[in-house]
Amino acid sequence: FLAGCTYPPLMDSPDFPSDIKQKVQRILSVCGGKSLGAYTESQGIITIREDIAKYIQERDGYPCNSSDIYLCNGASDGIKTVIKLLMNNDPKKPSGIMIPVPQYPLYSATLSEYGAYQIEYYLDEDNNWALNIDELERAIKESKDHCVPRGIVIINPGNPTGQVLSRDNIENVIRFAEKHRLFILADEVYQENVYLPGSKLFSFKKVLMDLGAPYNRMEIASFHSASKGWHGECGSRGGYYELVNIDKDVRLQVNKLISASLCSGAWGQAMMDAIINPPKEGEPSYELYKKERLDIVNRLKQKAELVSQLFNSVEGVRCNAVMGAMYAFPRVEIPEKAIQHAKSKNMAPDAFYCFQLLEKTGICVVPGSGFKQKLGTHHFRTTILPPVDQMKDMVEKFRTFHMEFLREWK
User: Fold this and answer.
1) Residues of the chain with pLDDT under 70
2) Which residue, 335, 313, 189, is CA-closest to 204?
3) 316-409 is classed in which CATH architecture?
4) Which of 298, 267, 268, 293 is nearest to 280 (CA)?
C-alpha cells in the first residue's frame, strides 16, 4: 500500500493485489496532484480521517466524526499541541498537568518547555502499576498552592511500566477528573499491545461514554501512533488524536495552531491509514495480512510472559507482569554500599547499576531514575522486542552479573 502510494506506476504490476490497488487509488484521488508529495489539509487527508473515525466508532460503539480527528507527526506532536492548549501563561500560578511516575519523559520535557507545573502522581507498583485514587487526591491537593490544575495524563497500556488498566480503575479515574474539572489526555498508543490473558484494552472515550451524564460531556483527547502496535513503524512519524466534547471556539484555536505548521507528513498519514484500515476478510490481501499479524502478536505475547518469569527467577529482582506495551520495568535491590558509591560519583544508584551492566555484559537497559520513581526504589526498563533465544541468553547473562554485583557490594 505504501509502495503504491509513493510510486503509483507500481500499481500497473500484476504482483499487487486488487484490493491494495483500489486503496491506493482511493487515497491518491483526494491528494493534490494525485501525489503524497503535495501539502494536505492541516487536519490531514479527509479520506484518512474518515477511515480513522470509522475505526474508532467500531472500536468503541459510539459515533466519531472525522472533524474531531487530527493527523500529526507521531503522537508526540499531537500531545504537545493539546498540552499547549491547556497553558494559561501565568508565571506566578501556571497551568498544572498531572503526569504518572514512572513516566514517559516526553511529558516532563514538554511541561518544562511550556513553563507548566508538573503534578506528579505515583503509580501503584504493588497493584500492577494501577492508578490509586487516594494518591491522585494527594498529588492534586499538594499542587494547588503552586499551579492551576488543568489536565491529567494517563498512559494505557503503560510506558515504561507495561500495565493495562482495568475498567474499574478507568471509571474511578474519570470520576476523579470530573470532580476536579480536569481535561483528560489518554495516551493509548499501545492500544494494540495487550498480551496477558484476561486483560483487555478499554479506551477512555468508551468508558467515559458508557458512564453517561455528566461524564459523557467531559473534554478528552486520545492519541494513537504508527510507532507502536504490532507494526512498529516509528520512522514514518504517523499519528493522530481525537478531540471529544471540545467547545467550538476552542476548536477554532486548535485549527489556527495546527495551520501554522501546514500539515503533518503525508507519508505518515498514509501509514496511519494502512494501520487502522487493514485488509478485510474476503479481500485478496487478507490471508497474508492475517498470518503476518498473528505471527508477530503471538511472538510478542510469548516474550511478554517469558520476560517477567525470567526476571522473577533472579534473586533480588521483582518484575510485575508485562500486561501490554513493549517493556518490562523490573525492580532491583541495590546494596547500600553500592548506593553510597554511586552518590559519591554523583550518579543515581540505578544508573550506576545499569552502566556496570552495560560495561560487563554489553546489555543496554534504561535506568528507572530516567523515568522517575518512588524514593528508595530502583528499576530499569528493558524491551521485549528481541527474539526469544536472545532474551533467554540476555537474562542468564544478567543473572550472572547481578549475583556478582551483590557479592561485590554487599
Assistant:
1) none
2) 189
3) Alpha-Beta Complex (3.90)
4) 293
- pLDDT at res. 107: 94
Q: Do domains 39-276 and 316-409 have the same CATH topology?
A: no
Task: Record the cell numbers describing residue 61, joined without a space.
Answer: 460503539
Predicted confidence at residue 151, as pLDDT, reads: 97
pLDDT digits 0-9 by tens, 144-190? 999 999 999 999 999 999 999 999 999 999 999 999 999 999 999 99
What is the residue extent of each domain of the chain?
39-276, 316-409
Task: Give the pLDDT of residue 233.
Answer: 79
Q: Whole-model pTM above 0.85? A: yes
Q: What is the pLDDT of residue 163?
A: 93
Cα-Cα-Cα-Cα dihedral sign, residues 301, 307, 313, 318 = negative
Contact status, residue 150 vs residue 182, Cβ threshold 8 Å = yes
Domain 39-276 has CATH 3.40.640.10: yes
Q: Please report the pLDDT score of residue 166 as a whole number.
A: 95
